[in-house]
Amino acid sequence: MPELEFQSAGAYTGNEQGLGAWAAQHRSLEGFSAARRNAGASHQRRVLEAAKLYADALQGKVDPWFIRQAMRPTEEVAVSYLMERYPGLYGDPGGRLLGLRETMSVTDYQALFVDVLDRMYYGFYNAYPIVNKSLVKVHQLRDFRLVSRYLLDGVVTPLTAMDAAAPPPQRALLGPDPQDGHPATSTAPLQYQPKLYQAMTSVNWRAFVNDDLGIFKDLSNRLAIAGNRGISKFLTGFYVDANGPNASLYTTNYKNKIVTANGASVNNPPLSIQGLQDAMKVLALQRDSGGDPILLTGKVILWYGPAYFATAQNLKNMLNSRVSVEGGTQAGSTGFPAQLVEVTNWIMQNLELVMDPYIPIVASGAAGSIANTMWGLTIDPNSQNRPNTEVGFLNGYETPQIYTKLPNTQRMGGGVDAMMGDFYTMDQEMKIVTVMGGTQIDGRSTVASNGSGA
After folding, report:
1. If DSSP codes are grouped into helix, strand and coil, which group holds residue 298?
2. Which residues are 202's β-sheet partners?
3. Which of 71, 123, 164, 445: CA 20 to 30 A from 54?
């Protein structure tokens, strides 16, 4: 068009320079230019108001929650508050409502948010299950009163040939021999009393207000972990003491130590195929107080500490075993056995594995490496008339229960404010509770080795 006489290469700036007479004939472009100027000014106001909002959040004048509302509005009352306190944040009053998220660019974020936005909170460790509960017999208790367990032997005489006219023999009803903690043949009961166990936590209201990462939302999970850990350590204490296998459960009288005196090939063998074979022999040789053999039925549980984890897994996944003892022939002068027996992994097929991580913790005073090398076999306590150990939980507390203290702070004329917690301390308090007790009953269904080889 001939009327277009460009005077320069510059863009149109609201006057006729650069477009010549054509621009003078199209005065409607002045409105477009004014709109651009107004839009730029409005954008600057929104940026300034956004910067003010962010600064207030950093200084604690407003909750950081309002930043999220400015970027992605979900609450009408929050938007009203922001429009009143930061009037330029959503554009001109009465104009079209534009959220902060839609009016800010990448460069705006670089200018305003100088702190790291990608923050993450790594919370508690994974919950450890109570892996050793299968090693004890669990009993439900009705109350806190003393629990008594009676063990009596005798009454029935051995089956013998006798004269038909002879008077019937008599045999006294006595306590078993041995009975740990009591004289031989004592009829005194084995007793224990349940106790209250609890773990607690308390968080102040100010910590909750400042918690923008949700750190304190996992308090119930932390309490549950503390409960499981406490029960696990409590159970470990029945078959492990500070010096190794529990001296009250594994005694000379019970003949349940894996030593040569009780039928093992070596004293206190480490965990191995030979050690397991020795443990099985010691179990099979068990006798009652009258000298008769005991029939031990049910699954057999192999328990050990973390140091034996790889050993136990290798034994469990072993396909075959070549033995020069227990059916083979001991090595001769040449160093090679005359007869070598290859068998399937029968011994591990009949075992259930329990890796107890609290063994080295409970046995913290054990000499040498015993805290790491001890291990044992236990017949399923639920399959025995006389289990090795009984642990009682108050009804309803076998699984620890979590409680919270009711808040007692309320606004004048309003309802209770759960966030404020206690009226005086402004703390929110929670705790986990269980009630349990236990005692060792009879050690004839379990054997143990300290793994020292001596």
Report:
1. coil
2. 429
3. 123
* Model pTM score: 0.70
Full DSSP string of 221-261: HHHHHHHHHHHHHHHHTTTEETTEE-TTTS-TTTT-B-SGG
Q: How far is residue 52 from each of residues 94, 204, 424, measured CA to CA in Å? A: 21, 29, 35
Report d(CA 350, CA 31) in Å as an integer.
90
Residue pLDDT, tens place only, 408-443: 898 888 888 888 888 999 898 999 999 999 999 999
The tens digit of pLDDT for each residue in 225-269 reads 999 999 999 999 999 999 999 999 999 989 999 999 999 999 999
Of 319, 297, 310, 305, the closest CA to residue 387 belongs to 297
Q: How many residues does the chain have?
A: 454
Please give the Cα distance from 139 to 128 (Å, whole number): 22
Please provide the CATH number assigned to the domain covering 133-160+169-319+345-449. Answer: 3.90.1690
All structural domains of the chain with their residue ranges: 20-112, 133-160+169-319+345-449
